[in-house]
Amino acid sequence: MLGIREPDIYGSSTYEDLVSLISSHCEEKGIEVKCLQSNHEGDLIDYIQQAYFDKTDGIVINPGAYTHTSVALLDALKAVSLPAVEVHISKVDEREAFRQVSYVSCYCERTIIGKGFAGYIEAIDYLAGKTE
């Protein structure tokens, strides 16, 4: 719902804009990237598990509201043992109290918050630097 949901917090750019930014950046850097999105927790777990079988070098994840509720996403990340970075477009640490809890951060190597779409690029560059 990027570009529609709370544009004062998330901005007016769309998911397609985000994917375009990531794809262009990765193409310039020679990084193979796959962007996936789902509103279903089980699909996200399937994506994480498939990353293991695809021999993926790392995962950039924005679990959205599942950040604050999903031990299952945490367990999936732990199970695959791939380097992971958590990204949030907004400054979740300055929002509602329930947003202060992040289960996936218990596994992720870094958490990048409040940098908008640039947070994804920072996360990609961090992971790429680990494999060079």
Summary tags:
132 residues, mainly alpha, Rossmann fold, 3-stranded parallel sheet, 5 helices, 9% strand, globular
Describe this structure in words.
By secondary structure, the protein is mainly α. The chain has a single domain, classed as 3-Layer(aba) Sandwich (Rossmann fold), CATH 3.40.50. The chain is 42% helix and 9% strand. It is built from 5 helices and 3 strands; from the N terminus they run αααβαββα. A 3-stranded parallel beta sheet has the order 1-2-3, covered by helices on one side. Helix 4 links the parallel strand 1 and strand 2. It is globular and about 35 Å long. The model has no long low-confidence stretch (mean pLDDT 95).
Question: Brief description of this entry?
Answer:
The chain is mainly α and 132 residues long.
Amino-to-carboxy terminus distance: 34 Å
What's the helical proportion of residues? Answer: 40-55%
Gross morphology: globular
Write the element-wise H/E pattern from the N-terminal end onward.
HHHEHEEH
In CATH, the topology is named Rossmann fold
- In terms of structural class, how would the helical and strand content be classed? mainly alpha
Instruction: Name the CATH homologous superfamily.
Output: Dehydroquinase, class II
Counted beta strands: 3
Radius of gyration: 14 Å
The CATH architecture = 3-Layer(aba) Sandwich
Counting H and I runs of at least 4 residues, what is the number of helices?
A: 5
Major β-sheet profile: 3 strands, parallel
**What's the CATH class label?**
Alpha Beta
Low-pLDDT parts are none
| Beta strand % | 5-15%
Mean pLDDT: 95
Report strand order across the widest sheet: 1-2-3
The number of distinct structural domains comes to 1
